[in-house]
Specification:
This protein has one domain. 33% of the residues lie in helices and 29% in strands. The chain has helices spanning 2-16, 22-35, 81-94, 122-125; strands at 40-45, 48-50, 53-55, 60-65, 69-74, 98-103, 113-118, 137-141. It has a six-stranded mixed sheet with strand order 1-4-5-6-7-8, with helices on both faces. A two-stranded antiparallel sheet has the order 2-3. Strand 2 and strand 3 (53-55) form a beta hairpin.
């Protein structure tokens, strides 16, 4: 699944190159995902669970593809640890296993893609976001 998403992102980057706003890349990537026959949701709200309450804290996942892969888009100078932590938070809070962090502001897109895998069980994904640990994720550059 991630290979098809990456192929769509590469197609977008091939035509647009770096330097545009994230929203432009999102729009074009959605077009390519639809052309590839992949189902997706945009700007998916992600509530925070705190002591039994579900709080809408304005967390939004850029894309969720086929209900299973979170795609977080960026158009920035470089990916920082905080961006990886953001995707990890989304993976854990949503209970999803795989996510892609794609930074379009690079000369060669493969250098702007990080694939992350959440190895926590469904039970542990229900815990408070304050107990997040980076050691629980394997990062796979693609």
């Amino acid at each position: 699944m991630t290979q098809r998403i990456i192929a769509a992102a590469i197609e977008v980057h091939r035509h647009l190159g770096p330097g545009l706003l994230e929203s432009a890349y999102e729009e074009c990537l959605c077009y390519e995902l639809a052309r590839a026959g992949l189902r997706f949701e945009r700007q998916v709200p992600l509530p925070v669970s705190y002591k039994g309450l579900h709080l809408d804290c304005a967390y939004r996942m850029d894309l969720v593809v086929e209900g299973s892969v979170i795609v977080e888009l960026k158009a920035i100078d470089e990916l920082l640890p905080i961006h990886k932590a953001q995707l990890l938070t989304y993976l854990k809070a949503s209970g999803k296993e795989v996510g892609l962090l794609i930074n379009f502001n690079v000369p060669v897109l493969r250098n702007g893609i990080k694939r992350m895998v959440n190895h926590f069980s469904e039970e542990s994904s229900q815990r408070s976001l304050s107990v997040l640990g980076v050691s629980a994720v394997n990062e796979h550059p693609r």
